[in-house]
Structure formats: structure tokens, C-alpha cells
UniProtKB/TrEMBL annotation:
It comes from Haptolina brevifila. This is ATPase AAA-type core domain-containing protein. GO terms for molecular function: ATP binding; ATP hydrolysis activity; ATP-dependent peptidase activity. Gene3D superfamilies: P-loop containing nucleotide triphosphate hydrolases. Belongs to the AAA ATPase family. The keyword Nucleotide-binding applies. GO terms for cellular component: plasma membrane. It comes from the Eukaryota. GO terms for biological process: protein catabolic process; proteolysis. PROSITE patterns: AAA. Residues 1-116 form the ATPase AAA-type core domain.
Length: 117
């Protein structure tokens, strides 16, 4: 992803899914909003989320109420990505995981992480 951004001559934003897992509810979602705001200001650019499964695990696979913070952060990421679809602001989001089969279906539908390489 870094090479793609360099070849395209655009800024590159790197993060890991676990970077957004916080102890206090609301912190991960706030960090996600800040990332997308910074990326939108630097557009065109590329955001790369490594270990996407740490953040995007299927909600049905989580223990009920066990980690509301991760779910809120995932919901915020989905909302930020939906905003990219409508505004066409030049922000491209890529992710990597070794566990594609456990990703939440909301992450893998068209307009989000919908290409598998």
C-alpha cells in the first residue's frame, strides 16, 4: 500500500485495527473520525488499515456487551467510509487481514472493502 501511494504521489496514512481498541468507550470512534478528517484534508490520499480483523470482526462473533468500544469504532469506520462514497473526495481506503472469513459483512459489501486481492 505504501508503494502504491508513493507511485501515485499521494499521502499515505497507516494504522492497525488494534490502534483503535481503547479502554474508554468513545475513544476509538473519535480516533477514527480524526483519521478520516485528516485524510480528507490531505486528499487525494490512501489510508491503509492493517490487521483489519482486530476492528472488523463479525458482530455476531463477539460476546454480547463484551466490547462495546470495538463495535462503536467499527460503526464509526463504516459511517466514515459511507461518507467517502457520496463525496468522492479522493480518499482511498485499503485493508489487510489473514482472517477474511471473520470480517463483518458490513465491511465487505460494495462501496467499502469490496475487492479481494
Amino acid at each position: 500500500a505504501r508503494v502504491m501511494a508513493a507511485q501515485a504521489g499521494v499521502p499515505f496514512f497507516y494504522c492497525s485495527g488494534s490502534d483503535f481498541v481503547e479502554l474508554f468507550v468513545g475513544r476509538g470512534a473519535a480516533r477514527m473520525r480524526a483519521l478520516f478528517k485528516e485524510a480528507a484534508a490531505a486528499a487525494p490520499c490512501l489510508i491503509f488499515v492493517d490487521e483489519l480483523d482486530a476492528l472488523g470482526k463479525q458482530r455476531s462473533l463477539r460476546l454480547s456487551g463484551a466490547n462495546d468500544e470495538v463495535e462503536q469504532t467499527l460503526n464509526q469506520m463504516l459511517a466514515c467510509m459511507d461518507g467517502l462514497e457520496t463525496s468522492n473526495n479522493g480518499v482511498v481506503v485499503m485493508g489487510a487481514t489473514n482472517r477474511y472469513e471473520i470480517l463483518d459483512p458490513a465491511l465487505t459489501r460494495p462501496g467499502r472493502f469490496d475487492r479481494l486481492v
